[in-house]
Amino acid sequence: MGSQPSRRQFLQAGLALPAAGVASAGLDRAPVPPAPVPPAEYRTLGKTGLRVTGVGYGIGFVPIPEVVARALDMGINYYDTSRDYGDSEKIFSGVIRGRQRDRIVIATKSPSRRKADILKDLDTSLAALGTDYVDIWHLHARDTPASIPDEAVEAMLECKRSGKARFVGFSCHDPNQMVDFVLETKAFDVVQTTYSFPIGGRFRDRAIERLAGAGVGIIAMKVVVALTGLNLSSLDNEPPRKGDGPLAGIKWVLSNPAVGTTVPHMKTIPELEMNFRAMSEPYTAADEKLLYVLNERIRPDYCRMCYECTGKCPQGLPVTDMLRYLAYHDFCGNYHQARMQFALLPPDIRSVRCGDCARCVIECPNGVQVRDRLVRAQGLLA
Ligand code: SF4
Ligand code: SF4
Fold first, then answer.
1. Contact 249, 197 (CB under 8 A)
2. Residue located nearest, by CA, to atom 5 of ligand 2
3. Whose CA, among 100, 147, 275, 295, lies 20 to 30 Å from 197?
């Protein structure tokens, strides 16, 4: 990684850009000045030493090139994609073509478990991204140590030795289940984990603290899921603006110094510009209040991924995973991802209908209406 541009350089780059929504018509009208871009904040990503912006970018399945380009121009330097996200890597490569490679931290992921497949996936990703190295090479969605067999660890270390990957890690939904494994193997430089106001705190803080204490870089994902798109008009006399929930949510995540960066997916320039402010604005009492209210509103519907119900369904349903798939649709608007993940469940699990159960044995300690949510998931995704 070359030297990072200073805040000032990025600030100047951002200010030089046309702002979103600038009026284009009307020769006699004075041009609207570009929206000022607040300074980006850089953090060190654990022992990698990489200096990354606190707000990164989750490229996702269908990146919008103009929004990604604007993020690059504003100074966001951390971009997360995956082999699993359709044409995501390829679309992203089109946006970064011609830009200075060493100013962009690229993370992508392999879905594979076998050594040969992981090595091949990396070459495929490099070709799709149009680069000869990635900064972070992850194993995708590993929620148990068994999902990272020895040969997968060997493959990741070989990717690093070859210089095609500068650092290695994995993504997971519950760091509690992975922290001992990471500390014992000492193979991984970073961990990308689900972490947000609704599912952080007592659910994940201790694990994150242990990982960060060992120098493992922490990348927080799903930081604004469940905080977006809610109707807040009845909240009080001065309802928050659209985007206040995600902004407060990212500020909450960044208030934990153990977090290196965050990877919210952003679909519009106003959303990007709103989230960007999380790096320069303090987390306030008003943010806290808003997050508490939002958290209560989503309580019956949003699984906190605490995994306390694991193994309790007599029909063997992986309740946490199924509720997460439903959340991809209900909270992220991504029906494709929800359906695709559901389709990967074994046929005997997909064929269960919770509506046939007289009573659900699972009583969620976090208030999730498990049976209702699963009935919805099965109706929508099966
Ligand atoms: S349904 Fe409830 S108990 Fe089960 S993982 Fe989600 S929050 Fe935890
Ligand atoms: S209703 Fe509850 S107990 Fe019955 S199949 Fe669904 S998750 Fe299992």
1. yes
2. 354
3. 147
Residue to mutate (ligand 1; options 173, 299, 370; most atoms within 8 A of CB) = 370
Between the alpha carbon of residue 305 and those of residues 198, 204, 205, 308, 351, the distances in Å are 10, 10, 14, 8, 23
Q: Which residues pair with 80 in a beta bridge?
A: 58, 107
Class of residue 283 by CB neighbours under 10 A (exposed 0-12, middle 13-18, buried 19+): middle
Residue 341 CA to ligand 1 centre (angstroms): 18
- Domains, the chain, in order of start with CATH, read 7-296 (3.20.20.100), 319-381 (no CATH)
State the distance from the centre of ligand 2 to the C-alpha of 311, rounded, in angstroms: 11
For residue 293 the two structure tokens come to 């209210």
The tens digit of pLDDT for each residue in 268-296 reads 999 999 999 999 999 999 999 999 988 98
Which is it for strands 51-53 and 42-44: parallel, antiparallel or unpaired?
antiparallel
What residue's CA is closest to ligand 2, atom 7?
Answer: 313
The atom number, within ligand 1, closest to the CA of 304 reads: 7
Tokens coding 105: 């931290």
Q: How far is the CA of 324 from the centre of ligand 2 (A)?
A: 16
Please give the pLDDT value at position 5: 37
pLDDT over 50 at 22, yes or no: no
Torsion angle (degrees, nearest 10) of CA 159, 161, 165, 168: 80
Give the pLDDT confidence of 43-60 residue by residue, as tens digits.
999 999 999 999 999 998
pTM of the prediction?
0.85
